[in-house]
Fold these 3 entries.
Entry 1:
Amino acid sequence: MTTPKSDFEIPEQMREFAEKSVDQARKAFDTFMDATQKAVGRVEEQTNAAQSGSLGMNKKALDYAEEHVDAAFQLAQKIVRANDVQEIFQLQSDYLKAQMEALGEQARDLSESAARTAGDVGRKGTDS
C-alpha cells in the first residue's frame, strides 16, 4: 500500500516543455528587441540636437522595459525549475520586491533626465 504524496510535483516532461517554451519566447523577444534597438538607432541618427534629450529618455525607457522583460524571463525559467509551490511563491515574492526597487530607481532617473532635458531646451531657447 502506498501513501499519497502531499507535495505538488511537476512531471519532468512538462518541465522540459515549459523550459523550451520560455527559451523560444526569449529568442523571439531578443530578435524583436534587436530590431527595435536598430530602429531607435536610425531615428536618433535622423534627429537634431534639440531632440536628443527626449530621444535619450526614450532609449532609456526602452532599455528599462527590456530589463523588466529580461527579469520576467529569468523568473519564468526559475519557476519551471522550482521543486515545490513554496519555492514558486518565494521566487515570485523576491521578483516583485526587486522589480519595485528597480521601478523606483528608474522613475528617479527618468525624472532627473527629464529635468535636465527641460533645462537644456530652455537654455537653447534663450541662446537663439
Note: Residues 43-127 form one domain.
Entry 2:
Amino acid sequence: MESTIPVKNKISHADHIKAEPFRKEPRKTVPHKHKQYFEIIYLTEGSGEHWIDGVKYPIRPGVLFFISHDQVHNWDLHSEPEGFVLIFKNSFVEKSLDRELEMLLQRFSGTTCLQISEQAGIRRMFGLLAEENGGTSDMSVHIKEGLVKALLAKILDDPHFESRRPAVRTDLFHAFTDLLRTGHQAKMKVSHYAALLHTTPQNLNAACRKAAGLSATAVVAEFIMNEARRQLRYTNKTVSEVSLSLNFTDASHFVKFFKRMTGQTPQAYRAAQ
C-alpha cells in the first residue's frame, strides 16, 4: 500500500475536454484519483466491478459512472468492455458562455452510478463527442458545448435518474464545494471559508441549506470524513498522519471526530476494510 493515493491524468494540459472510446486494457487497475477533472463513463458492454470510494458497483450494459477528481476508484473487469469516456476540467465549464451547462452539471452532484433505460440516443451523443474530440476550428468548442449540454439533458430525462440532492444550486454553494475539493487545507470553522469567499458565515450557511439541505458545518464535516475514509482505506498513513493531513491539531481530536461521525474509531474502520 502506498503512502499517498496515486493520481492519474488522461488529458493534456492544453485541453479542456476530451471524449474517446473506453480503453479495453488494462482490465484491472489500482485505486487512484484524477488530476482536477470530472469524468463520465458510459459502458455498453462488459462485466465486473467498479469500486468508487470503497463502494462496489456491478458493471452491466447501459451503466453510467460519474467521478469527481477527489474520489478514489478502480476497475476489476471480467470481460472486454465497450463504451465511452468523457473528461472535462472546470475550465471547460467556466469558459462557456452558456450558464445552463453549469446548471445541468450541478444536478449530478451526489450521483455516482446510474443504470439508464434508453441507450441509443446517449450512445450517439457520446459517439459524436468522440468524433469531435480532435476538432480545432473556431466552431469546435461550441459544438462540444452543445453536445455535452444535450448529453447531460438526455441523461437527466431518463426515468431512472434520481438526484441525491435538490436541483437548486447557488453560485456561493458551488464556490464553497469547489474550494473544499481543490486541495484547500480543510478547516472546521465555517468563518474561515466565509472569509475566503468574501461573505458571512450566515450567508454561507443559508446557501448550503438551500442547495444541499445541510449546514455549512455539516458540508465541511462530510468532506473531511470522505477524505479521511479514503486515506485510511487506500494509504498506509498512520492515524496521526491522516489527522495531520486533515488539519487536526491533535490525533485524539481526529479520533473523537471520526468516532462521533461513524460510531467507530479510525483503527476499527481500517481493520474492517
Note: The CA atoms of residues 20 and 142 lie 18 Å apart.
Entry 3:
Amino acid sequence: MTAVTALSPAAPAPERERTKRRLLDLVKRHGPQTAQDLAARLEISIPAARRHLCDLQEQGLVEARVEKPGGRGRPQHVFALTDRGEAAFPKTYSLLCVDVLRHVQSLYGEGAVLRVLDARNAEIAARLAPELCGSALPERLELLAQRLTEMGFDARLERDPVEPGVWFLVQHNCPNLTVARQYQDLCAAELDLYGALLGVPVVRESRIACGQSTCRYRIGPGSA
C-alpha cells in the first residue's frame, strides 16, 4: 500500500493577513529587513516569510533591494517599504496642512490662504499645460483625469447623454478632504485650475467636502 503524505492545511486567510500586517509593521519600525530576519522576528519559517513578502511585493507594498549590512560585508537582499507601503500607515499631513494655513491666515490676513493656493495651482498648471496643449477637449479631459487619479482623486469621465459636447469630470475621492472642509478656498482654487487648463466653462455640481458622494464638474458649452 502506498503511503499518503498528509499536507499541512494552509493558514486561514485572516491569519495570513495579520501576519502580513505584522511583517509590514516590522519593516516600518526597523527599516529594511532580510527574509531571515523577518522570519526570526515573526517566529515563522523562512519560506513562509518569503511567501508573505512575495504577496506584499505583488501588492506594491514592499520592494527588494540589494544592500551591504552596515555598509560593508557581503551584499544581501533586503525588503523595504514602497511609497504605497508607507501610505498604509497613519499620517497627519492633512492636520499639519490645516495648521499651516491657519497660521498663514492669522499672520497675513483673510486673502493669504487663497494667494497660497493660487500659487500652488499656478505651479500645477505650468506642469500640466504642456501635456494638454494642442489636443481636442476629449483628449485633454482623458489626460487630466489620469493625472488627477495619480494625485489620489480617483477621477472618471462621463458624457452628457443628451447634450453633445458636454462632459462630466467625476472625482470619487478627495485626498485633501480635511483641509477642504475647513478652507473652501481650496475647492474654489481647484475649480479655477480646471477651467484654466481646459479652456472651456467648468461648473461644479457636487462636492465631497459638503457631504456629497463625489465632486462632479460639468464641462463644456453652456456650463457657464
Note: The longest helix spans residues 112-132.
